[in-house]
Design brief:
The chain is mainly alpha-helical. It has 13 helices and no strands. Helix 2 packs across helix 13, helix 3 packs across helix 10 and helix 7 packs antiparallel against helix 10. The two termini are 32 Å apart.
Length: 277
């Protein structure tokens, strides 16, 4: 008898739940797009508007007339790319050291790094602002990104991934061939941890892209604005044009979707690799 190619018994409810969850996850983005194509009055309409309109271009032109949108997008892309590359380098080196080397205080320092994850970032806002201002980094992308260069989650992720994916025997064989630790990292470790790189890269890029509080604190010159700070300036205390605002938010979200689609294969590979092993 041929095996049935239909759904296995008991899987239909699971697929229904997944479809509902997917629709609920996608709907906010769809509604944002719909509002970006409507005049501001449609935001409070009853019943709510669920079909796209014809104001997408007009709303976006209002955004361009109000804020330096493309300059802010370039600043954001430059900031996020630089911080992401720096975090990937620092986290992978630190994770490699914690995973494969023994040194005094190794566990203590690793736990100390993890403990920084439970400290609310708002607690350090004032002293961090003071240090950045004393260094002369206000209104610079360096000042906006310096706090994100050391990422405890990234170090933890890289340590776990390298511990499980890089065999000690392979490192010992490389050392017998005369490879230095950096050569081992460059030639052996880096090719193996590409899926973890994609995962951490997406996390960090998204985190920095969506950061508002710190960027709003240190960036005061419109020429140095990132997208989040520039979009915040669209909020008028007396009147908010929701069509214009959500049009700016929509176009600010598009690069994130593109980044995810580009690295989606490696991201899924990193998630599923543990179950495959």
């Amino acid at each position: 008898m041929r095996k049935s190619k239909g759904l296995k018994k008991g899987t239909l409810p699971v697929y229904i739940i997944l479809w509902i969850a997917s629709i609920l996850s996608i709907f906010p983005f769809y509604w944002m797009f719909v509002m970006a194509t409507q005049p501001s009055a449609a935001y409070n309409s009853i019943p709510p508007t669920l079909l796209p309109g014809d104001q997408l271009v007009n709303n976006f032109m209002k955004v361009l007339d109000t804020i330096p949108f493309f300059q802010a997008m370039w600043n954001t892309i430059l900031l996020c790319t630089t911080v992401t590359l720096a975090v990937l380098l620092i986290s992978s080196l630190a994770g490699f050291a914690f995973a494969k080397f023994e040194f005094p205080g190794k566990n203590f320092f690793f736990i100390l790094i993890l403990l920084t994850m439970v400290i609310p970032p708002q607690l350090g806002l004032i002293p961090q602002f003071y240090l950045v201002s004393q260094l002369g980094w206000l209104d610079t992308l360096l000042g906006a990104g310096v706090l994100f260069l050391l990422n405890p989650l990234g170090i933890f992720l890289m340590r776990q991934y390298i511990s499980e994916s890089v065999p000690d025997e392979l490192m010992e064989a490389a050392k017998l061939d005369g490879c230095s630790n950096f050569r081992i990292f460059r030639s052996i470790v880096l090719p193996i941890i590409k899926p973890a790189f994609a995962t951490l890269g997406i996390i960090v890029f998204t985190l920095v892209w969506g950061e508002f509080l710190w960027q709003f604190t240190v960036l005061r010159d419109p020429a140095s604005y990132t997208l989040q700070v520039a979009l915040a300036s669209l909020n008028n205390a007396f009147r908010v044009d929701f069509g214009m605002l959500l049009s700016g938010v929509f176009w600010a979200t598009v690069p994130l979707i593109i980044i995810f689609l580009i690295f989606n294969r490696w991201f899924i590979s990193s998630i599923t690799e543990g179950s495959i092993k």
